[in-house]
Each structure stands twice: as C-alpha cells, then as structure tokens.
Write a structure and sequence with these properties.
Helix content: 40-55%
Number of helices: 11
Shape: globular
Number of strands: 10
Strand order of the largest sheet: 3-2-1-4-7-6-8
Distance between the termini: 45 Å
CATH class: Alpha Beta
Order of helices and strands: HEHEHEHHHEEHEHEHHEEEH
Largest sheet: 7 strands, mixed
Structural class: alpha/beta
Length: about 300
C-alpha cells in the first residue's frame, strides 16, 4: 500500500511539473541571437519524449546563452500537433521526419548492410547513423531529451569556440556496452574509453567511421548481450579510436537518485522513474532560472 501511495504521489508531482513548471519555462524562453552554425545540436525524440526534449533545448539555450542550430530527429511516432509545438518554440529548427531520414540513410548506408539492418531494428540506432549523416558541419553535439542543464557548460562552450576536434562524453556510473569490454577490445583492436554514455557527446564528424561500425556489427550482431546499446557502443568505439578527448567532468552528472548533486552543470535523468524525476526536479529549476533572467536578477 505504501509503495502504491508513493508511486501515485510521484506521478502526481510529475504531472504538475510537466503541465505547470515545464510549460511555463518553455513559454518564457526567448531565443538568443545570432544563431551559431557550428557545431549543430542533434536530438532524437518520440511521441513520449518530445516534450521533455523541448524543455532540454530551452534549458540548454538559456544556460549557454546562445542560439544553436537544432536538428530534431523524430522516430516516426511524433504527430503533427507535437511538430507544430516544436517549431513554435524553435522556429528555425531542422525537424527531420522519419520518412526523410529513412530515404537518406538507405543511400548513405547502402554499402553497410549491418548498419542499415540495425537502424531498422532499433530506433535508438538513429542517434548514431542519422546524426552523423545530417550534420552539415565538421562537428556536432548529441543531446538526449532527458538531459537538463542547470549552469553554463564552460567546457562545452570552450570546445565550440576554439573549433576543437576532440571528442568528449558524459561519464556513466557503470559501463553499458552491447557486449563486455574484453570482447570489444579484442575484436576491434581498440582500448575503449570507460563508462561511456551517449546522452551528451561532443563529436568531430571525422571520427565517425562507417567501416569500423560495420565491422563491430558484423562481429556482434548475433551475440550482443544488449543490442539496444549498439549506438552507445559505436560512439564509444569512435571516440576511443579517435583518441583525442575523453570524459567531461563529473559535474556533468548521471545519477539514479532523487536529487542532483550540488554544483551539477547538468543532469542526465536515468532509471525507471527518469521522466517523473525530470519533471519533479528539472522543470522547476529550469523555470526558476528563466524567471530570474526575466526579472533581471
């Protein structure tokens, strides 16, 4: 009974966070100017995650103080009403519908059948294949819809401003590859970066090697313990093979608890209750930051 009551309370608080705090934060956002052309920011959304993605984009632009060129890739489930809302908040967004991306990636991956097959099987694979294919410049940023920023990301802004070709990632609490690290390293001949999480990644496009991706999939397509982590494993492989860069500071937080750590730049919400926690904690903090800015504090 107590567990049920806790669950109901959590869901109720999350609903208030979504309907009141998140929507107010989204409505208050005013996009900075002028727009940056490089790097571009790429996000994958679904019918379930597009609203959180808008909140993530609003918090990102507020705390970076910049107007970014967003590419929002939808997995084929986002309806017209949601698309209109996304465009109203991010008027110059490049919204990439699934039909368009299917056609383009069919051509891009025509010589990489294992990559194409995994893209059809696992929607998360679009984060790897489509972001690289659609990014127009030399670098791009992977931003998950459940990553909320609370402070200016100095390391990311420095990376963007100096035109760096290093690769950086959000360090996880544990490793989550498609198959244990020793098998990967033996097959690919690469020492893998530890605890790689693909929720926030700074990517030089030259680091993306389709042949290397095809090789990994050809080895592990049938034996992978966790095929849903192919895209994360591939980003880790590309960064590790590139060999320049590494993990962002721990203040770029991934955590399973109820509250963020003190001084966190951002938090990647993970776990079974992540969407509840995102709206319970992340949405009020995003709104408070925007209200403070509008008040001139």
């Amino acid at each position: 009974m107590l567990t049920f009551l806790r669950q109901q309370a959590r869901h109720g608080c999350a609903a208030i966070g979504r309907q009141v705090f998140a929507n107010a934060a989204i409505a208050l956002h005013r996009r900075p100017a002028p727009q940056m052309e490089d790097p571009t920011v790429h996000m994958l959304v679904s019918s379930r995650t597009w609203h959180a993605g808008l909140l993530a984009a609003v918090a990102w632009e507020h705390h970076t103080g910049r107007r970014w060129r967003f590419f929002i890739h939808e997995d084929g489930t986002v309806d017209d009403k949601a698309r209109r809302r996304i465009r109203s908040v991010l008027p110059d967004v490049r919204l990439v519908p699934r039909g368009e991306s299917d056609a383009k990636l069919g051509a891009v991956l025509s010589d990489h059948p294992h990559c194409l097959a995994q893209r059809s099987k696992h929607n998360l694979f679009l984060k790897f294949s489509d972001f690289a294919a659609f990014a127009p410049g030399d670098r791009f940023i992977v931003l998950d819809s459940d990553v909320i920023f609370f402070r200016p990301p100095a390391e990311i802004l420095e990376w963007a401003d100096r035109g760096s070709d290093t690769c950086h990632y959000n360090e996880d609490t544990k490793e989550k590859f498609c198959i244990p690290r020793p098998y990967l390293e033996e097959a690919m001949g690469v020492t893998m970066w530890p605890r790689f999480n693909s929720g926030l990644v700074l990517v030089p496009k030259a680091a993306i090697d389709w042949d290397r991706a095809e090789k990994l999939l050809s080895h592990f397509e049938q034996t992978a313990h966790h095929p849903q982590f192919f895209e994360q494993t591939l980003y880790a492989l590309m960064g590790s093979a590139w060999g320049r860069g590494g993990a962002l500071p721990r203040s770029y937080e991934i955590s399973w608890g109820y509250f963020r750590q003190r001084g966190a730049v951002c938090r990647h919400y993970v776990g079974a209750f992540k969407h509840d926690l995102l709206y319970i904690e992340g949405a009020p903090l995003a709104l408070a930051a925007l209200v403070k800015k509008r008040a001139g504090c």
